[in-house]
Amino acid sequence: MSSEESMCSICNVRESSGFSYGVLCCGACKMFFRRALFVKNIDTCRQKGECIKKCRYCRFQKCIQAGMSYTPTENLLELKNNDSLSAFIFNLAHQDELRKYQLMNCRYDGDPTVAEIAEHNTPLNFTKKPDDFPMNLGEWIFITGLTSLNYLKKFNHVNMLNASDRHFLLKYSFFDMSIFTDSMRACEKGEGVITFPDGTEVIRAEVPGLEQKFLNGIRCRLAARVNELKVTKEEFLLLSAVFFCNPGLPGISESGRGILSTYQKIYTSALLQYCLLTYQQTGPTRFTDLLSVLQVVTKTRQDISYLFILNSIRGPPSALKKIFIFR
Ligand SMILES: [Zn+2]
Ligand SMILES: [Zn+2]
């Protein structure tokens, strides 16, 4: 290890003591992160995130940006451990806030493939976009895909996999994650149709030669289901863990499948425990209803793929980014 590699990637002052929560860091930063999750004593920064001597808020943001990620290792339901559950949700909420911030405010230079993104288990490097940066449909699709990839990449189950398994998992999950976030946003805005943050429609209302009913299915079906169930932010976060830790995806090795099933069990038990705590007797029904959202995600993705194939038959896709090219 060179001296730079052995430094803590959070404080950059002390020697790292190895990987903790998925990131190379020192003992003090490791303890800091754990306490922050369990005590949740993170006030906002007095210098709006620009303080010289890092405050607790800024230090915690640094942990989140570096991809520090906590997963309860035990079966939460058996232990009835609510502290672990709320620490897990708190961690995911901050990762999701960062995803939203990057979606709205950042751009990405370059055009990597999913395999290239999967090669390293470090977060993607986004840069702040200038106010006059032209956002068109292609840019929105690209940044939505990349911020979804970046969010998924930080899960511990993704970091446990080898590069090849990580590639397959990300490749078959990130688009579903993207449409799930689009639908949650539509719901939060009280809209029935999926749109990007600036109001651009994800799928056009009319495509020559295609039935309106088919297009409306893509535009509205998932958002309608999320709205009907009134999926909360916490439920969305737990579902994002359960759904995108699928051991049944093609291409994943035997050992990779083992890792994914172990984690999927933990995430599923976290969701069930959340439902039981929040909804008491109707908890089990709520749990089943929430899991059923995955079918709607899958159906929507299949319809979009069909639309995409139709469009590419009609003419070669212009400047399609590499993360969307499936071979
Ligand atoms: Zn440190
Ligand atoms: Zn600060």
UniProtKB/TrEMBL annotation:
GO MF entries: DNA-binding transcription factor activity; sequence-specific DNA binding; zinc ion binding
Residue span(s) of domain NR LBD: 95-327
Domain of life: Eukaryota
Domain Nuclear receptor: 5-75
Annotated SMART domains: HOLI, ZnF_C4
Keywords on record: DNA-binding, Metal-binding, Nucleus, Receptor, Transcription, Transcription regulation, Zinc, Zinc-finger
Annotated TM spans: none
Family: Belongs to the nuclear hormone receptor family.
Entry protein name: Nuclear Hormone Receptor family
Organism of provenance: Caenorhabditis elegans
